[in-house]
Amino acid sequence: MRSLRRKENPLKLFMNQNDLALMLVCLSASLFGVLLVYSDAVTSDLGIRSAIVQAAASLMGFGVAFVMSLFDYEDLCRLWPVWMGIAATLVLLTFTPLGLNVAGTDDTAWLGIPPWSDDPFLTFQPSELLKVAFIITFAKHLDAVEDHINTPTTLLLLALHAGGCIGLIFLQGDDGTALVFACIILMMLIVAGLHPMILAGGAAAVAIALPILWLNLDEQKLARILALFHVEDYLQTEGWQQAQGLSAMATGGFDGVGFLEGNHNGLFARNNDFVFSIAAEEFGFIGGLMLLLILAAALALILRTALKSRDTLGRLLCVGVMSMIGFQILINLGMVLRVLPVIGITLPFISAGGTSAATIWLSIGLVLSVYHTTRLRRPERLFR
Predict the structure, then answer these.
(1) Taking the C-alpha atoms of 145, 151, 153 and 157 in order, what is their torsion angle to the nearest 10 degrees?
(2) Residue 78 sits in which domain range?
(3) 321-340 pLDDT per residue, tens
(4) b vs e for 81-117, b when ≥16 Cβ sit within 10 Å of the residue's Cβ?
(5) Which of 129, 135, 362, 377 is deepest in the core (most CB within 10 A)?
(6) Domain assignment of residue 3, yes or no
(7) Is 12 domain-assigned?
(8) Number of other residues whose CB lies within 10 A of the CB of residue 242
(9) Is residue 371's pLDDT more than 70?
């Protein structure tokens, strides 16, 4: 007698195999970001083009992330030469006459679209794509050397791998992104099993290098740091942005002044580095807290996937993405709250910028792939 089997519901199968919670949380963050960028565009009379770009980039990024989630992350990582080749080539192009310096920044880190135009329709920041490519290649590298990560030869090769990417960004003049790279590298090394004594030695080397770095800072960067401690002396110069951002947040109070009712306060590119001040002004303490809870939920869900990953490669991919997003959140909030100097770090999912919005979703695609693949793998493959 033929046994009867009930076919599994395709919708239920889809929901069981995909991290819908992470998708919904990240979509909520992107929607929040589009609303804030739109509000800034309206209240500052800049036009809504930035909001349209933000929405289009977020939707495109989500679509690519969803497609990535359907692939095995091991297959995605096998193509590491392709990802790194494309990203590194685009970064290198910024050192040619094609490189652009966007208004309000002090680094040449953008490419125009089309690249030959004197007034490009769009701009693209390749270093954002390099962060995602680096997470893939460094995770692949660490997975391959897991059993002998603390040997001198392995450490030297890892240092060359990491140093090459940071060096490219540093030469661009983008110190903020270079700092994010350093944070990603540190967390991935810790999770991969780097010996605590080596970490202590690295920390000691950084401590020794700090005075040398301080003595070689240019005047503008030095002033941004001093503005944190001598507020009144720099209130009309390097401390202006942070003072106005804090003023806007204070204006918002508990429940905010209302959507589209914020005051631009003369802040340049408020929709980028200081986008959190828009949220706190228009939606108050409640809106700011809600935004932070959404971002915290995204990090928690990425951590959950990392802990459930059945191999080192999947775990390292998730940790790399979580580190990138988490440290960008901490640095951005530190700038807005005048705890850290202004170094041009965007708030993930929220800050204006098509490149940032799209590439953050690419990194989420890696996490979704780890989640999806882990749910599908058979036991005999899991422990091969």
Answers:
(1) 50
(2) 20-88+127-377
(3) 999 999 999 999 999 999 99
(4) eebbeebbebbeebeeeebbeeeebebbbbbbeeeee
(5) 135
(6) no
(7) no
(8) 27
(9) yes
* CA distances from residue 10 to 4, 67, 115, 313, 369 in whole angstroms, order as listed: 18, 17, 45, 29, 19
Question: In terms of Cα–Cα distance, which of 119, 53, 99 is closest to 353?
Answer: 53
Helix residue ranges per DSSP H, the chain: 10-17, 20-43, 49-69, 73-78, 80-93, 126-144, 152-172, 175-192, 196-215, 219-226, 240-252, 275-308, 312-336, 354-376, 379-382
Find, among 269, 360, 267, the residue nearest to 321 by Cα.
Answer: 360
Structure tokens at 362: 């690419």
pLDDT reported for residue 104: 59
Q: Are 253 and 284 in contact (CB under 8 A)?
A: yes
Residue 343 domain flag: yes
User: Within a 10 A sphere around the Cβ of 322, how many other Cβ atoms?
Assistant: 23
The residues facing 113 across adjacent strands are 122
Q: How many domains does the chain have?
A: 1
**244, 265 contact by CB (below 8 A):** yes
pLDDT of residue 222: 87
Identify the residue with better confidence: 195 or 215.
Answer: 195
Question: Residue with structure tokens 């204070």?
Answer: 250
Q: What pairs with residue 124 in β-bridges?
A: 111
Rounded to whole angstroms, the Cα distance separating 61 from 363 reads 9
Give the pLDDT of residue 16.
67
Which residues have a Cβ under 8 Å from the Cβ of 243 and sit 6 or more positions away? 231, 235, 338
At residue 15, the pLDDT reads: 64
What would the pLDDT profile of 28-37 be if each residue is shown by its tens digit?
999 999 999 9
**Sequence-separated (6 or more) residues with CB below 8 Å from residue 123:** 100, 102, 110, 111, 112, 113, 355
Once rounded to an integer, what is the mean pLDDT over residues 131-157? 95
pLDDT one-digit tens code per residue, 14-28: 666 788 999 999 999
Nearest to 137 by CA among 179, 82, 91, 183: 82
pLDDT at residue 379 in the model? 46
Categorize the per-residue pLDDT at 263 as very low, low, confident or very high, splitting at 50, 70 and 90.
Answer: confident
Residue 9 lies in a domain: no
